């Protein structure tokens, strides 16, 4: 698998918060893009 400490940090505390943050930003942007046209119309 590689270096245990490095892979543990990347999979446990490195990648997961970034993925969650990216999903949050994506959903916020998606909701804004869908709400704005509805509000305009």
UniProtKB/TrEMBL annotation:
Domain of life: Bacteria
Transmembrane intervals: 15-35
Keywords of this entry: Membrane, Transmembrane, Transmembrane helix
Statement: the UniProt record of this protein carries the keyword Membrane: yes
Name under which the protein is recorded: Uncharacterized protein
Lineage: Bacteria, Bacillati, Bacillota, Bacilli, Bacillales
């Amino acid at each position: 698998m590689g270096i245990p400490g490095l892979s543990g940090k990347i999979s446990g505390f490195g990648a997961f918060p970034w993925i969650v943050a990216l999903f949050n930003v994506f959903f916020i942007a998606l909701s804004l893009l869908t709400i704005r046209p509805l509000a305009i119309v």
